[in-house]
## 1
Amino acid sequence: MGIFDDMLKDSESLFMDPVVLDYDYLPKLIPYREKEQKHVAFCIKPLFASRNGKNILLHGPPGIGKTAAIRHILRELEENTDDIIPIYINTWQKNTTYKVVIEICEQLDYKFTHNKKTEELFSIVMKDLNKKSVVFCFDEIDKAEDLDFLYMILEKIYRKTIILITNYKEWAINLDERIKSRLTLEMLEFRRYNDFEVKGILFERLKYAFVPNVWTNEALGLAVKKTATIGDVRTGLYLLREAGNSAEDRASKRIETEDVEKAIEKISDIKIKEPSSLKEDEQLILDVIKDNSGKKIGELFDIYKEKGGEGVYKTFQRKIDYLSKNKFISTEKQMGGPDGTTTIVKYERETRLDEF
Ligand SMILES: Nc1ncnc2c1ncn2[C@@H]1O[C@H](COP(=O)(O)OP(=O)(O)OP(=O)(O)O)[C@@H](O)[C@H]1O
Ligand SMILES: [Mg+2]
């Protein structure tokens, strides 16, 4: 008997279409966000009459449909009109003006970017963009390292709506005056879902993801309850998938409470954000911290170097700061030991496990 024999009986899988549980899968409808989507649509509306639109800062905690709601609107725009160009960019991944401009070129299918400077590229795409109207969405805007691209867009693109998304409402307060006064942001808060809404969302995803009737009521109830407590739908999707895997592993035809319990134990390992939104070196640092939680920052730097990490100690410190601000890790200053003042770094999810 081959080692994979047990795993390959596809017809017996509890999953019908597991892709539906992917974090970046975009469902056809985004229930419970109709009001927020209408507000955004209202800001875009002037563009349909070739007038300038309104700009908006969308804020709220992780995993509550901010990205999903906006991507949904942009998709509808794309399907309904050729006169408005939707541009969506995650400024965690494209975190400099140069990278943002290159990404705009890519989305507009402009290929001759090689050896051209930021300004030159921007003036090329600007001509195209100004033939129509544009909706820009910059997601995770607080992670952008510079905001010159915003200034350039505000100055040079005539008809646009700029949608900025962040977890931190306060981000807007510290904006450069030059940008702030030109943006005149409307604020739109996304609040957490209540228990009823969490249940509705998970049920809807589950219908397409799993074979009918494989979930016991108790197991599903537990997954919903946990998700509602944490308040993050991304965690809920993770629980559904992991519980499904666990039931399959024990060759059960039903997903039961014990499977959800196992999945809950694993929550400590999932990242607050999608791993893809961390850059490679940040991910390496995070992995090093996860395996060496509680060590001093200097020791962690040595391990990071051994594993092929690049850059000087100062850069490493800055990245630690960044991971800490985003709650992937926690840091604690320790005064007056044999090495003087040092920083102890802990893997955050480990320290927060008892919150669940
Ligand atoms: N109303 C909803 N209907 C269906 N799926 C939803 C809904 N709200 C959130 N989701 C799903 O939950 C997951 C997380 O949502 P999303 O990525 O939009 O979170 P977010 O608010 O942008 O979080 P973050 O601030 O961490 O980026 C996604 O897979 C999304 O499809
Ligand atoms: Mg998001």
## 2
Amino acid sequence: MSSTLLDVRNLRVTATRHGSSFDIVDDVSFSVAQGEVLGLVGESGSGKSVTCRSLMRLLPGANLALTGGEILFDGRDFAKLSDRAIRAERGASIGMIFQNPASHLDPVMSIGDQVAEAIRTHRGVSSREAWAQAVDLLRQVGIPDPERRARGYAHEFSGGMRQRAMIAAALACDPKLLIADEPTTALDVTVQAQILRLLLDLRDRRGLAIILVTHDLGVVAQTCDSIAVMYGGRIVETGPKRAVLKAPCHPYTARLIACQPNHAVGGRLLPSIPGQPPVAGQMPPGCRFHPRCDLAVDECRAARPPLLQRAPDHLAACPVMAGVA
Ligand SMILES: Nc1ncnc2c1ncn2[C@@H]1O[C@H](COP(=O)(O)OP(=O)(O)OP(=O)(O)O)[C@@H](O)[C@H]1O
Ligand SMILES: [Mg+2]
């Protein structure tokens, strides 16, 4: 794999509520190389979206703040840029697509105009040139008859076509990294497969790096090069996809894998992880997974387990399972 594009170190996002403050992203570190697809997985509420948004300093609430860490992108620290400077990087360095494209597309502006506007803002080309480039991008993301479809509106597009339009808008300024936050969850399986195929094509053609947020380890298995597993605002395991899926070194990862549909035999009900994920602001001490973990020992309750190296590039924050795999 080629050189590191994004290096996130000790990222911290703090929420303030009713006068108290707590971390919802706690000391998160990971990196993404050019052309790499990183899968960010974890149960609902584990902090995947907040982590992704913090990379562009687009936190989803006024009570949230980036309170620590570095976001090194191509050698510059996005955590330290001025508001004005980071605005220029959105779209140009990092593009983002969301789970529900309908709520991120403007209903009263044609699809072509929305993509063209993104191009014009960042590239300073004429309207005519921006429109031509927008049509070309819509073609590249697989929208049929793009000259005509560009004049259409979001409500005239199917879910899959809307997601393609979102991808075109996110790519308008030729970013090096695309953050895709559950881009296919709302789509049926066939369309989901087409969108994932498209993302991989874009990676191959443009050398695009991708952070793919998903609940679905099947998607990770098909699409990603590496995985970062989040639990309670922390990364508990990270490594090459094959290594993590084949020989997980954290009990939470092992449980997630056991809960995937392809492990269900003969249509039996899937096992789910007993207990509830922890709630932001009320995190248990030590390893945040310990109340749900069969392997937990006193050490796990007492202090946060450090990420231990299990193999080259494979880290896991479990002192117990570390001896097993
Ligand atoms: N503005 C806010 N104030 C306080 N807590 C917040 C705020 N926004 C998000 N959170 C909390 O931060 C945690 C992480 O949220 P986030 O949306 O990143 O989870 P997620 O992993 O993306 O979940 P999902 O899979 O459901 O999308 C959650 O516990 C959430 O309740
Ligand atoms: Mg989310």
